[in-house]
Amino acid sequence: MKASITYSIIVPMYNEEAVIEHTYERLKLVMDSASQPYELIFVNDGSKDRTVEMIKLISDIDPNVRLIDFSRNFGHQIAISAGMDYAQGEAIIVIDADLQDPPEVILDMIDKWKEGYEVVYGRRLKRKGETLFKKLTAMAFYRVLRSMTNVDIPLDTGDFRLIDRKVCDVLRGLKEKNRFVRGLISWIGFRQTSVEYVREERFAGETKYPLKKMIRFALDGITSFSYKPLKIATYLGFFLSLGGFIYLLVIIYQKLFTDTTESGWTSIVALNLLFNGIILILLGIIGEYIGRIYDESKNRPLYIVREVQGYEEEQSNRGEIRSTEETERIKHYVR
Ligand code: UDP
Ligand code: MG
């Protein structure tokens, strides 16, 4: 069963019909040259275009190709997690569908893995063909995240990485719903290293991460690894009260000892708006955390699979149902 496959490549896909054939060919070329048995797991994250039909055609002719088809769009991080549930290899590699992460770099990652590293992440030296806005926001995101969390999440790395079977098993045991996979991998530990690469331009199609999704993603990253934002309320409250108290003393002094008492309701309205705004923002931050607690407590499955293709009959329900042997192994790592 598992023993025969060495490498599992996970490719999350959302409306990637424009690139998918090309991606498959590049991946196949690279993986054939690694000369070990491998599987290409394409996770279709609820695409509305022809992505899924195309993968089915490819999977019909290439026995190394698998399709995991979601019932709807669950999100990039969840697609990656599903791929890990289905992966059978000894080393698992996650790569974007759009060829921004050059498949050839996988060979460098494999070399590091053979040296004994259990996590090999790709570090982006440069990002080509992305807007200044995307570059700036990405840069800010990684740095803010780093300053806010105690987990050592490496700068400028995406989800393009290789993980060992051990790491994959531990990750599968972490059942949190708001998944920020790269943070979880750093949190897990093990021997980690990086390979450097230049992030290419998207081969075709457009980014599937519009600003709204990016903000969600950033919030997930920060809230799953830090509760510092919650502390802002405490600090801010403290400083504002202190300021208010000092100002009060000043007013009392003016009233008693001088004849320059200030009056005016406009300043009161302005201050009111300001402080109410601050309070609402802080409530919103608390809400983000409560919403996530709510998500976790509902205990819904992480994703729903419409169908899988490319597996033998007995392996096709790997996602939800684990064999006892697998559960035991996960227990061994997660206590
Ligand atoms: N993706 C996905 N589900 C989503 C959004 C994106 O599976 O809801 C996939 C997408 O198909 C691609 C990868 O995640 O393989 C990264 O997305 P994209 O290249 O659009 O992001 P960017 O590189 O612009 O940050
Ligand atoms: Mg991309």
Keywords:
335 residues, alpha/beta, 8-stranded mixed β-sheet, 8 strands, elongated, binds uridine-5'-diphosphate, binds magnesium ion
What does this 3D model show about the protein?
- The protein is an alpha/beta fold and 335 residues long.
- It is 50% helix and 16% strand.
- It has helices at residues 20-33, 51-61, 76-86, 105-115, 132-148, 165-173, 181-188, 211-225, 228-257, 266-298, 324-333, and strands at 7-13, 38-44, 65-70, 91-94, 119-127, 157-164, 192-199, 305-309.
- It has an eight-stranded mixed β-sheet with strand order 7-5-6-4-1-2-3-8, with helices on both faces.
- Helix 9 packs antiparallel against helix 10.
Largest sheet, order of strands side by side?
7-5-6-4-1-2-3-8
Helix percentage: 40-55%
Task: Give the total of beta strands.
Answer: 8
Structural class: alpha/beta
Q: Number of helix segments?
A: 11
Instruction: Flag low-confidence runs.
Output: none
Q: How would you sum up the global shape?
A: elongated
Distance between the termini: 27 Å
N-to-C SSE string, H for helix and E for strand: EHEHEHEHEHEHHEHHHEH
The amount of beta strand, in percent, is 15-25%
Q: How do you describe this structure in short?
A:
It contains eleven helices and eight strands. The chain has helices spanning 20-33, 51-61, 76-86, 105-115, 132-148, 165-173, 181-188, 211-225, 228-257, 266-298, 324-333, and strands at residues 7-13, 38-44, 65-70, 91-94, 119-127, 157-164, 192-199, 305-309.
What's the structural blueprint in terms of helices and strands?
Blueprint: E1 7-13, H1 20-33, E2 38-44, H2 51-61, E3 65-70, H3 76-86, E4 91-94, H4 105-115, E5 119-127, H5 132-148, E6 157-164, H6 165-173, H7 181-188, E7 192-199, H8 211-225, H9 228-257, H10 266-298, E8 305-309, H11 324-333
Parallel strand pairs: 1-2, 1-4, 2-3, 5-7
Antiparallel strand pairs: 3-8, 4-6, 5-6
